[in-house]
Write the structure tokens for this entry.
Amino acid sequence: ETGVTQTPRHLVMGMTNKKSLKCEQHLGHNAMYWYKQSAKKPLELMFVYSLEERVENNSVPSRFSPECPNSSHLFLHLHTLQPEDSALYLCASSQVGTSGGDEQFFGPGTRLTVL
Amino acid sequence: LAKTTQPISMDSYEGQEVNITCSHNNIATNDYITWYQQFPSQGPRFIIQGYKTKVTNEVASLFIPADRKSSTLSLPRVSLSDTAVYYCLVGSYSGAGSYQLTFGKGTKLSVIP
């Protein structure tokens, strides 16, 4: 596998289910990200794990819970979601230094549908 | 947080040069400007990044004026395969554990034969 992979690619779940999205990067990067992309809305940064620090968007509901066990793997745990959480969830990784910009490499995304 | 504004859509004929402008009036000193391309049902793909003046790579050029309050992505001689949504991203890693990454709403470019 190369680049950034995400599983599953598609997920349908009920509002009472618990599921997890998985992301793996094979690029040796030190930062990983979760984004949400809803129809006709801008890409929304949800969480960042960078240099072993976690940064989160305060507008993200607590029913989304990230986990980053190491620099190559990232999970997004989902529980008691709402239909409005249906969206494309994108994972990305990058190599960051102490300052400046960085190029993010995105995975193909997980299309989530909440019934 | 820097906010960005882009045209919602643009049309162009094949072979023409396309310029897409992004406004980011509140850009911070440490912010870089990055452009991504996204096809349907795929993750965004990096195109180009710059801090000031002009940057050119094999697929695009990025023009940034001295005040850095806007930037223009230039795609030379577009083809049908360039039909996609283009996102302008302004942000930086501040080094203090805080990210400021704001994507624009994207510009849907349609290339016409």
Notes: The mean pLDDT of chain A is 90. Chain A touches chain B at residues 4, 31, 41-45, 48, 50, 53, 55, 88, 90-92, 96-109, 111 (CB under 8 Å).
